[in-house]
Amino acid sequence: MLGLLASIGLAVFSGSADGLATVTREERRALDGDMLTGKYPFYHTSSMLQDEASSLASSCSGLTLSTETDGDASVPVARLGALGSGKELKIVMVFGEHARELISPETGLAWLRKLCSEEGAQLRQQTSFVMVLNANPVGRAKVEGGEYCTRTNENGVDLNRNYGFHWKAEHADDDESGVGSKQGVPVEAFSSGSGAFSEPETRIVARLINQTKPDVFLDVHSGTKGLFMPYDWTTDPIENEADRSHMKSVLQEVNSKDCPECMVGDCAETVGYLAPGSSADYAYSQGIKYSFIWEIYTDAEDAQEDAAAQNAFLARKKASTSLIQESRRSGVLASGADVNNGDVPAWAAGEEAVLAPMEKEAKFHCLLQFNPLTKNEYDSTVLRWTNAFTTLTAAVRQLQGAA
User: How many CA atoms within 13 Å lie on the side-chain side of 172?
Assistant: First the structure.
């Protein structure tokens, strides 16, 4: 590894924004295998996120930090009370629901810093915030260790399919496909859990929603660039035209000021696939009139290549698993045989040899698709979306004042 670092240039890790900005896709690919923060020191581990949030508490008026628990699950939450009097706008924000979307909690931490600044104190005069800083800590830890495609929690469940509004039983090996303009296009499938709210992390978020009864709910993701509102479970629009109009007005304001290239609209209809049991749909069902899901980043350079690499690996792995299972059922392959040992037919060992490099390539593309990998791009992404959160707050307050 030292030789590889020398050949690429140690300036890559010098902390210089210019040095990091010059890293090519090929060089980043060659470095695959290191721990996340070894390659990208501007990112934080889960413990670092909590430590940095804690360091703000002594100097940030009205900030309290807690660890919300449910069984063995623990989720860090920041609460910032309104600093002034008058009608209070209450906002709940969720970061990091999907583990591989590392940039989401990074943006949440930057937003917390901003709210604790002099500028943030003005913003908080009549606005309070409850922020789930890292909604999937166990899943994120796997990503931090190099499992860059991990999206689910410790039980292999997609948390954004586990909420109790139009929850639907889905499984990781299902054949999912898109809707609308993406009708028939394969969609990556994940388990939605054994039932609505089967997962402790979703129960924690639901509890915070129902305790806080906010005016605004925002769930922050990455993988594309989009500003979305319910519904996720159907392509039909929200029945209440006033709610839909108000939410769309807010999103158009953010679109105009902060992300002109972002898609805007009803989530399922706009992105082209259904997501029953999502957090934003659940929040809206609980009476939150401004309920959003934002997608804040995608690798614009080679998004199609990233998706193709992941899909090729997943398709080959699914076919290989099916073949091995069928061989065991038919008796061709002994039920206890280990594909990683030498006691299997050549074709089975060959599949493992083919899948290993494909898996490494897919992991790299996952990291690249969902997260900025240079310091310059990281900083610009964080700055853009902390500005967008300010726009969101001001736009909702203006609409409420006009109501």
Answer: 12
